[in-house]
Amino acid sequence: MTATADVGVVIVAAGAGARTGSTELKQFRWVAGKPMLLHSVQLFMERADVAVVIVVLPRSHAGDPPPWLFQCDVDRLLVSTGGRERGDSVYAGLEDLPPEVRIVLVHDAARPLVDAGTIERVVVAARAGTGAVAAVPVTDTLKEVDDAGRVVRTVERSRLWRAQTPQGFPRDMIEQAYVDARANQIAATDDAALCERLGMPVVIVRGSERAMKVTEEADFARLEALAPLPE
After folding, report:
1. Could you tell me the CA-to-CA distances from 105 to 35, 46, 126, 158, 217 in Å, in that order?
2. Sign of the C-alpha dihedral computed for residues 36, 39, 45 and 50 taken in this order
3. 177-191: per-residue pLDDT in tens?
4. Which CATH superfamily is domain 7-226 in?
């Protein structure tokens, strides 16, 4: 059976990555054998149901993307210009989705080692009509503290999960959430949170510890350790 190409992927790669301490954009740095951004673009393009992958780059690079980006299927690749905040960049990507897209995945380029199984679980849940968040359960003991650093309480962790990306949604759900958020000047670091505030259904699907987010310089070494060995 041939899959219907109705999935649109918005990869957010418009951040400056200042916390890594490098002058080079972190999403362009090489890790585990290729530029970090290229890991995600190529993995999503392996899916037959993906109609388009929209890469949202900083304004300084959107007009002249790095040449290695075009190692991908250029017929399914679009480049959008990011905004000041993450939400602005996601919105820019949503505006560029073609009409045939029915399911939207939003992914952070800073998570280059997401696996195909996680993506599939997110897509399946989104096709069922809900928002879907890849996540892993919290395993550490959590402490809530006051402003002085004094422990207030130990937080029950059995129902807590650490959100990752991709996050997937029926197209009308995520578009409505972003339109409402912009109208009411609501900001969020998590796409699903914008749906949750409107009472839209969102579920957790199992993610992977390998899908860690690169934030600081030391994270690059951690990614190399987590990356699978070449075949």
Report:
1. 21, 14, 9, 27, 27
2. negative
3. 999 999 999 988 899
4. Spore Coat Polysaccharide Biosynthesis Protein SpsA; Chain A (3.90.550.10)
Among all chains, which residue has been given the structure tokens 């017929």?
75
Per the CB < 8 A criterion, the answer to whether 101 and 7 are in contact is: yes
Which are the contacts of 149, defined by CB distance < 8 A and separation ≥ 6? none
List phi, psi (to 5°) of 220. Answer: -65, -40
* Distance in angstroms (rounded) separating the CA atoms of residues 90 and 122: 18
Task: Give the containing element (helix H, strand E) for 144.
Answer: strand 142-145
**Alpha-helix residue ranges (DSSP H) falling in the chain:** 36-45, 59-62, 86-95, 116-127, 171-183, 191-196, 218-226
Which sequence spans correspond to the domains of the chain?
7-226
What's the pLDDT tens digit per position in 29-47?
998 889 999 999 999 999 9
Name the token pair of 113.
Answer: 């080692």
Q: 203 and 121 in contact (C-beta within 8 Å)? A: no
* pTM of full prediction above 0.90: yes
78 by DSSP, 3-state: which?
Answer: strand
